[in-house]
Amino acid sequence: MKELTRYEKARIVGARSLQLAMGAPRMVDTDSSDPMEIAEHELEEGNIPITIQK
After folding, report:
1. What 8-state DSSP symbol labels residue 54?
2. What CATH class has 6-45?
């Protein structure tokens, strides 16, 4: 996978955190309840269910 730009990362984390806030299941095991932190952790682990088409 190619490196994401900071804008792509921000867009993905924002979209995923909205999904999590609306009740989507988590893709990582964490104690945090903040959707933004969970989405960032998912992105770091590579477990985020979103793809980018360039």
Report:
1. -
2. alpha beta
In the chain, the DSSP E strands lie at none
How do residues 23-37 score in pLDDT, each as one tens digit?
999 999 999 999 999
Is residue 47 within 8 A of residue 24, CB to CB? The reply is no
Within 10 A of 22 (CB to CB), how many other CB atoms are there?
8
Separation between Cα atoms, residue 10 and residue 17, nearest integer Å: 10
Positive or negative torsion for Cα 7, 10, 15, 18: negative
Query: Domain residues of the chain, as ranges?
Result: 6-45
CA–CA separation, 13 and 40 (whole Å) = 6
As a whole number of angstroms, the distance between CA 36 and CA 12 comes to 11
